[in-house]
Amino acid sequence: MKIHERMAVFVESGYCTVGRGPKHPFLPDTSLLPVIASFLERYPFLLKDQGYVEFLQSYAGASIQRPNDEFLVDIYGFTRASTNMLELPGDMIDNHGFLMFAGVYWTQETKTGHEFIELDFAFHAAGDKADGVYYLTPSLDEYRWGFARFDHWLEALVLKQKKLLPSEG
Questions:
Q1: Number of domains in the chain
Q2: Predicted TM-score (pTM) of this structure
């Protein structure tokens, strides 16, 4: 499934906002071409994941926000469709060498009430870990590898929604 097919399914999920990058399939915003090029020049390790590069160039960010905040996806970008990476304070790379590109949040019912679930997704910048998408939850003390590529992560997101963690065992 190509990035445009995945994003079509993303849109079908409802309650979403999708940005328009310089290579958007229907309504390109060429004003973002130098912005994205500069971002990729500043963080060249991102060029290893062509699916992520294609997402930025085509959609420049996306989000889903269901009613009552029961499910929120924020794939950072450069438009009002999601958190704008250029407006985040400080360097994008955290003190563990990861560049966070998305957050997924939802609530689920438990025996004792509701539990808030938060997953952060990132790429490793230093090059001393396997390429791919890493995830972090508040209960973890470090990022863990989850998906080989951004397009695999996006496919899990659009097809499985909350089942974003690799199966154990």
A1: 1
A2: 0.88
